[in-house]
Structure to design on (879 residues):
């Protein structure tokens, strides 16, 4: 589904990501872990086009997507959430989700403003789908509430709803459990499993909370200092010597 | 084009350019420390020019609130220059306290500060106009003992540059050297550069950021006042609105040289001066568009300017 | 009532046109772009109308046909739109201050060009632009519909897919792109719409003011527009409209106060001539005390005029 080939990204001499290669299979729940600053978010930025790689290639469903701009990649069916929640704070929860319907809808400027029947119908449909997604993540009770007013954990779930509005086939979640308590984490785990099954998604997950990753993921890749140091089933990775060393001092 | 004509145009270009350069020095200094574009620099330099004029005991024109007034002092030119530049410096500080500091403490977008400075500049220039009227003023000539022009050519093929323009060029180089020395070789300069990097960390390290920012505005305002007076001396004061015109053209200079880059201000000024001087005769009417065309081009092609470093955007 | 309208005919039409121009600053701002390029397109539109009416169309003597004015507006709109795309595509890759500076440069360049071309009349400009109406007040027949249509357009825009895309770009351009919104397309779209509208206003204004030269559509105009939007409100289309109306009327109102008498002469003079001082101070105050302007969606909501919270 997604193929990362010798991907490298350096910022002014710092190798944020260095010759990383792996593949993600369709329908997999693939975890990406590593100490802080290992290059996980940079890798996400590379996959979604927010950063350009210095070397290497990215392939999605067989197609070369290296260097494509973010909105094109979104249009191909890759959606993401952000490490530091990047919701449209001043807009309502509903509007946040509705915006992400952009690539799946077509009303233009003129049609929309005039209020052509097709545009109006599309608008209604967009609302309906957005509300359904809010329902899916459990936030349907406050659709018109400003996004910035939501509790941190709820904001993260709102971001997931927004990403889902893209009707993606590949979903990238960047530390979705950050700042959540254990109850919320369990609930999130359930949500992620649920959307994988119900929506047939392939999910790439960056997460620091290792038990969650071990529990959810089919396979895990471990990054350290921008390099891939381990790849495989959770149980194997957990026992890998290089991984243990990288995490020395961190809770495992 | 013969050699003499070429030399004349080069010298003209350097002459105009050095005026832009001193103006830009104060302008870019603020950016180098605070990362904001202070459009009021133009208004303040106008105030300085008018203040110097007043301090020489000259009489104001017939328009404006202060029509026909004179100050009860009559200072020799150099002292008036210093006094006028002090007025500029103080005005700069007042503007900083009232308009910029509230935005700075709130961490406001530099764009908002630019907009605010546009408003303050327009207000100040119009207050100046309200007080002094819009008619031109010319300074009593302090350089009357010196020959009126310097000859860079030969007696038979003169290549003349007005003495005042040579003085201005000299001043711009001196100012450049002084400022560069200040920024790179003194403790104050190091502290200023620390503030430029990160204001919060600097104050945590015990640097008195407020005092340093004050100092920056004092220096910048003083330079502005000097510039205004020198231009007034060179071509006369065309009216308070020349502060806006300079403020606008100054934008081109500092962006071309590199925002915040002190040698860049001089390079930018000289380049634009030369560009204006070398506009072919048949396009002379479009000369005023040259700085802005250059500004537009630089923004598209190399926004960090000639001497600036490219900035990497962190996602 | 009749005498009021007759006395203030020039002012009322100016207010309406100013409100439309304020919207031209608002449109790119919806996408988070501060562009002060509209005075340039305003000047261009005026020149198109002036040139067409004085040099190209040769109507019969008497009142100039309104239909020709409408044609001029259309041509001005198209020319502005084309220039808008041509300038917008390269310029809108810039962000923040750099974009603002580029648009300032654009207006300056246009001004110098206008000052020097023969077809634009050089420094003198074009005068004696034909009048489609017998009285200045009748220009309201053009100004008011244009104002209402633009208000309607922008109000509708905020509730459509395209409008949402613009607002998302304003809130967080990177996140918007990651959600599928093409930043370049939308920024150029907003910029071009703004140019088209400014051009149309320029075309009307050329007839309204009867002459057109390089003193129309300058940096001063940019400052006025910034005052309208900054003071009026930058988060809802109502803001710039009210800002434009009120701030255009304000100098006139102050002049009225000055004429009442009993004021010290210097203060009266200040009230009469101090428009730019007041605007400048308002801009500075605005950035500190009300950066989103006086009319915010929150205010509209509290007055029962807006929609529920969260809708911008």
């Amino acid at each position: 589904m997604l193929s990362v080939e010798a991907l490298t990204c350096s910022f002014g001499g710092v190798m944020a990501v260095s010759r990383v290669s792996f593949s993600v299979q369709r329908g997999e729940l693939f975890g990406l872990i590593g100490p802080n600053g290992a290059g996980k978010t940079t890798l996400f930025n590379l996959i979604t086009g927010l950063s350009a790689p210095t070397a290497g290639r990215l392939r999605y469903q067989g197609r070369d997507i290296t260097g494509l701009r973010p909105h094109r990649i979104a249009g191909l069916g890759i959606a993401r959430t952000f490490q530091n929640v990047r919701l449209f704070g001043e807009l309502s929860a509903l509007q946040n989700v509705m915006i992400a319907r952009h690539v799946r809808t077509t009303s233009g400027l003129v049609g929309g403003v005039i209020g052509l029947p097709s545009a109006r119908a599309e608008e209604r449909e967009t609302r309906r789908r957005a509300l359904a997604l809010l329902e899916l993540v459990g936030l349907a009770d406050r659709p018109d509430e400003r996004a910035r007013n939501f509790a941190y954990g709820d904001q993260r779930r709102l971001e997931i709803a927004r990403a889902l509005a893209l009707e993606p086939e590949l979903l990238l979640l960047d530390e979705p459990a950050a700042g959540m308590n254990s109850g919320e984490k369990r609930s999130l785990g359930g949500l992620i499993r649920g959307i994988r099954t119900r929506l047939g998604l392939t999910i790439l997950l960056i997460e620091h909370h290792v038990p969650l990753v071990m529990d959810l993921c089919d396979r895990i890749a471990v990054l350290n200092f921008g390099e891939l140091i381990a790849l495989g089933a959770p149980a194997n990775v957990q026992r890998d010597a290089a991984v243990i060393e990288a995490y020395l001092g961190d809770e495992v | 084009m013969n050699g003499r004509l070429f030399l004349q145009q080069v010298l003209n270009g350097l002459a105009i350019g050095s005026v832009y350069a001193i103006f830009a020095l104060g302008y870019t200094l603020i950016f180098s420390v605070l990362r904001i574009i202070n459009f009021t620099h133009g208004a303040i330099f106008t105030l300085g020019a008018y203040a110097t004029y007043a301090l020489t005991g000259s009489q104001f024109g017939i328009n404006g609130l202060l029509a026909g007034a004179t100050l009860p002092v009559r200072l020799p030119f150099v002292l008036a220059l210093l006094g006028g530049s002090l007025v500029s410096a103080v005005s700069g500080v007042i503007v900083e306290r009232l308009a910029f500091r509230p935005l700075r403490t709130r961490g406001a977008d530099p764009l908002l500060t630019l907009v605010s400075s546009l408003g303050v500049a327009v207000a100040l220039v119009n207050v100046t106009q309200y007080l002094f009227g819009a008619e031109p003023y010319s300074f009593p000539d302090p350089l009357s003992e010196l020959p009126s022009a310097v000859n860079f050519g030969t007696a038979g093929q003169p290549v003349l540059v007005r003495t005042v323009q040579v003085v201005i060029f000299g001043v711009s180089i001196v100012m450049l050297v002084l400022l560069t020395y200040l920024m790179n070789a003194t403790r104050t300069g190091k502290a200023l550069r620390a503030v430029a990097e990160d204001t919060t960390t600097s104050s945590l390290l015990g640097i008195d950021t407020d005092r340093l920012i004050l100092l920056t505005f004092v220096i910048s305002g003083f330079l502005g006042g000097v510039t205004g007076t020198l231009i007034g001396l060179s071509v006369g004061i065309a009216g308070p609105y020349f502060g806006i015109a300079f403020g606008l053209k100054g934008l081109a200079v500092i962006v071309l040289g590199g925002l915040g880059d002190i040698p860049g201000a001089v390079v930018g000024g000289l380049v634009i001066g030369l560009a204006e001087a070398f506009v072919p005769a048949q396009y002379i009417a479009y000369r005023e568009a040259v700085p802005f065309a250059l500004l537009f081009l630089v923004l598209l092609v190399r926004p960090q300017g000639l001497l600036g470093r490219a900035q990497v955007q962190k996602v | 009532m009749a005498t009021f309208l007759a006395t203030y005919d020039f002012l009322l039409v100016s207010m309406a046109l100013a409100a439309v121009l304020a919207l031209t600053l608002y449109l790119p701002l919806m996408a988070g772009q501060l562009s002060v390029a509209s005075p340039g397109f305003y000047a261009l539109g005026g020149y198109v109308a002036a040139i067409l009416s004085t040099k190209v169309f040769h109507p019969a003597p008497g009142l100039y046909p309104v239909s020709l004015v409408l044609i001029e507006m259309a041509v001005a709109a198209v020319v502005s739109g084309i220039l808008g795309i041509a300038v917008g595509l390269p310029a809108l890759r810039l962000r923040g201050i750099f974009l603002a500076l580029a648009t300032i440069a654009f207006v300056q360049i246009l001004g110098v060009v206008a000052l020097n071309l023969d077809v634009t009349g050089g420094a003198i400009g074009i005068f004696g632009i034909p009048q489609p109406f017998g009285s200045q007040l009748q220009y309201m027949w053009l100004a008011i519909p244009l104002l209402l249509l633009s208000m309607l357009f922008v109000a509708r825009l905020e509730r459509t897919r395209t409008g949402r895309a613009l607002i998302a770009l304003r809130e967080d351009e990177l996140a918007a792109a990651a959600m599928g919104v093409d930043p370049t397309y939308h920024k150029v779209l907003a910029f071009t719409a703004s140019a088209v509208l400014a051009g149309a206003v320029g075309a009307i204004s050329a007839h309204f003011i009867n002459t057109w030269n390089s003193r129309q559509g300058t940096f001063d105009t940019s400052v006025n527009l910034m005052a309208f939007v900054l003071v009026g409100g930058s988060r809802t289309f109502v803001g710039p409209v009210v800002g434009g109306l009120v701030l255009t009327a304000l100098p006139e109102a102050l002049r009225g106060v000055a004429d009442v008498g009993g004021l010290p002469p210097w203060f009266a003079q200040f009230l009469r001539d101090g428009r730019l001082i007041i605007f400048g101070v308002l801009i500075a105050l605005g950035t500190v005390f009300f950066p989103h302007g006086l009319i915010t969606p929150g205010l509209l909501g509290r007055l029962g005029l807006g929609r529920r919270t969260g809708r911008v």
Observations:
- Chain A touches chain C through 47 residues (CB under 8 Å).
- Chain A is about 40% helix and 25% strand.
- Residues 117-137 of chain A form the longest helix (21 residues).
